Task: inverse folding
């Protein structure tokens, strides 16, 4: 069996980190083959204390490493994790996540079958069991809410373009380098594009599930969608090949609203009627399906409005990103750490080979 470094990057995650570490202690993959790498992004709460307490606890893992991510940038944290990891396989998990006991085992199963990159579906879960929170969760998880995304709802083993909570053989980073630290939310898409360009495939296994805690309020969810859309727009100027057409649908919807509203001012209202009619059909249809599958709740009739708010916020974010992209393109492309990580991993692999001779 291969050894694995499970990596976590955290910034002010005292609320979630403790339960994630509890998930880690329950992993079924042999603990003596597992290294835990904890990256603290200069947290101002009790995150580092929780990490230190875990490192000093009576654990049975091969090793527990703690390192600092001085810049606080998420992508920089993952680069720090790659360079802090010592084992054959690197597995990423967000601090704001939930891991089933077989999380590592299911990923390693595919790696040991010969895959170089492996992962599975990642769905949203809600931390509080209340009607409003569950409605937000169901809206985000629905087909109309999150789009037709195989990385969230795939049902068969397949090769995909990108995934969350992924496992990589270390040699992958020796060939493609690290994450682009200039990309705040699309670093996964970009590095996975380079991995695919290097000839590797991303193995998606529906059994290798993981979960991400959803935003706890509508305002935070809207802000998240706007930010996600914004970075999609910016990334179009850096790596258009790593952006899917589905990422651009909300932007097209917002442009459709603007165009049809303009035409309606001149008496051409038919396109607006058609667009809003189709949108209402999908929004109400998905609401009905959700109610049938999960039961009707007090806030269920509000779901079509939430769909609209999430789609418009994402689309507006994308438009803003596209507008700013020409002015930031050069800055976003330049990231010396990509090559720095590549050279570091190359040397560490060479040293490891020499020690094994």
Result:
């Amino acid at each position: 069996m291969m050894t694995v470094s499970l990596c976590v990057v955290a910034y002010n995650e005292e609320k979630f980190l403790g339960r994630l570490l509890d998930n880690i202690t329950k992993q079924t993959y042999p603990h003596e083959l597992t290294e835990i790498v904890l990256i603290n992004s200069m947290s101002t709460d009790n995150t580092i204390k929780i990490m230190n307490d875990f490192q000093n606890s009576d654990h049975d893992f091969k090793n527990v490493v703690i390192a600092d991510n001085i810049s606080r940038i998420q992508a920089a944290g993952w680069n720090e994790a790659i360079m802090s990891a010592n084992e054959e396989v690197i597995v990423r998990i967000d601090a704001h996540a939930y891991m089933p006991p077989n999380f590592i085992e299911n990923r390693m199963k595919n790696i040991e079958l010969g895959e170089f990159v492996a992962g599975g579906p990642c769905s949203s879960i809600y931390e509080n069991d209340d009607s409003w929170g569950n409605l937000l969760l169901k809206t985000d998880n629905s087909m109309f809410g999150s789009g037709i995304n195989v990385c969230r709802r795939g049902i068969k083993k397949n090769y995909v373009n990108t995934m969350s909570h992924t496992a990589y053989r270390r040699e992958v980073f020796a060939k493609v380098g690290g994450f682009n630290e200039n990309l705040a939310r699309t670093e996964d898409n970009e590095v996975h594009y380079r991995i695919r360009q290097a000839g590797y495939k991303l193995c998606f296994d529906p059994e290798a599930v993981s979960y991400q805690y959803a935003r706890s309020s509508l305002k935070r969810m809207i802000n998240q969608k706007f930010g996600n859309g914004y970075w999609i727009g910016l990334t179009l100027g850096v790596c258009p090949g790593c952006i899917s057409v589905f990422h651009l649908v909300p932007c097209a919807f917002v442009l459709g609203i603007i165009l049809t509203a303009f035409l309606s001012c001149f008496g051409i209202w038919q396109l607006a009627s058609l667009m809003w009619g189709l949108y209402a059909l999908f929004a109400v249809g998905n609401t009905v399906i959700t109610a049938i599958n999960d039961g009707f709740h007090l806030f269920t009739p509000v779901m079509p409005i939430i769909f609209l708010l999430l789609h418009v916020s994402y689309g507006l974010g994308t438009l803003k990103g596209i507008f700013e992209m020409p002015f930031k393109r050069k800055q976003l492309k330049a990231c010396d750490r990509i090559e720095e990580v590549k050279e570091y991993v190359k040397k560490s692999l060479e040293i490891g080979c020499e020690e094994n001779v």
